[in-house]
Write a structure and sequence with these properties.
This protein is mainly α and about 290 residues long. Helix content is about 75%, strand content about 0%. The protein contains 13 helices and no strands.
Length: about 290
């Protein structure tokens, strides 16, 4: 196999398996590390590394305008998404969280249409949007073997998906740097700083007791930093530069499947029949919406 093909295969493996596994990693990390500190740590470390790589490669220092734009993007994508998901993971199974987050491509279509930057969704795309959100609602359908789902955490997770979609659109319209590492790392770094502040307001710095942090939680946090943030975003940007966006977007309906399997296999999470039905309906909707574009 040619080297470019190997790099492409490896990059897809990272965004398929790596990103899909981060939902379980977050759930394991928040078992003994406060949730906002989990989000702050992964973004501060990864953002610092990427910004450092960009500067070392000769990238110009960001302008005040770029900093403001990066802070807005970081607030939407890392504070209101990573922070919210970490908090929700203290209450909901990782597989359920992943299925609710899978609505991100649907929100992007809706926001583009409402913002006037895209035409009205086609009938195929509209059907996909309807199925996608129906699948999310089916997660709450009462059934004997359905796992207990926290309503507030689920609403917060849905808001996190909407926030990531809004941040994605804002990032498309912004020019932070000619350096990919700088443009990626700056929002992560600023978002991590903001999350550290949120953690302080929530009293998490005082509540953190390092002796109480389990090896599993520390390892999960390290995994989030290396695989979820550094490797994940690097692979994602590499694929966006070398592959059609529609093919890269397939991670949106692979990640929840990976999260459900790993949550049941390694995390001991119940895998109910209604959950599988909801997943099938939701992911079919995401597929229709993504493939229509």
């Amino acid at each position: 196999m040619r080297r470019p093909a190997l790099w492409t295969l490896a990059a897809f493996g990272v965004i398929y398996i790596g990103w899909g596994s981060t939902f379980l990693a977050v759930r394991l990390a928040v078992e003994s590390i406060p949730p906002f500190l989990v989000g702050a740590s992964r973004n501060l470390v990864a953002g610092t590394v990427l910004v450092g790589v960009g500067l070392a490669a000769g990238a110009a220092r960001p302008t005040p305008r770029a900093v403001r734009q990066a802070f807005g993007i970081g607030s939407l994508m890392f504070v209101a998404n990573h922070g919210a998901i970490a908090w929700a993971s203290t209450r909901n199974p990782s597989g359920i969280t992943a299925l609710l987050v899978a609505t991100i491509p649907l929100w992007i279509v809706v926001l583009e249409w409402l913002g006037g930057t895209a035409d009205r969704p086609s009938s195929r795309s509209a059907t996909g949007i309807g199925l996608g959100f129906l699948g999310s609602l089916l997660l709450f359908w009462p059934a004997g073997d359905t796992p207990q789902i926290d309503p507030l955490a689920s609403v917060v997770t849905a808001g996190a998906a909407l926030s990531w979609a809004a941040g994605t659109l804002k990032a498309r319209q912004s020019h932070l740097s000619n350096s990919v590492a700088m443009a990626t790392g700056l929002p992560m770094l600023l978002g991590g700083m903001a999350l550290a502040g949120v953690a302080g307001v929530a009293g998490e710095w005082q509540a953190l007791v390092l002796d109480d942090v389990s090896g599993t939680a520390a390892g999960a946090l390290g995994y989030l930093i290396v695989v979820g943030s550094l490797a994940g975003f690097s692979a994602y940007l590499f694929l966006l530069r070398t592959m059609p966006a529609s093919r890269v977007a397939t991670y949106a309906y692979v990640n929840p499947v990976v999260a459900l399997v790993l949550g049941a296999w390694l995390g001991g999470e119940p895998l109910a029949l209604m959950t599988l039905l909801a997943a099938a309906v939701s992911l079919a909707g995401v597929y229709l919406s993504v493939s229509a574009r």
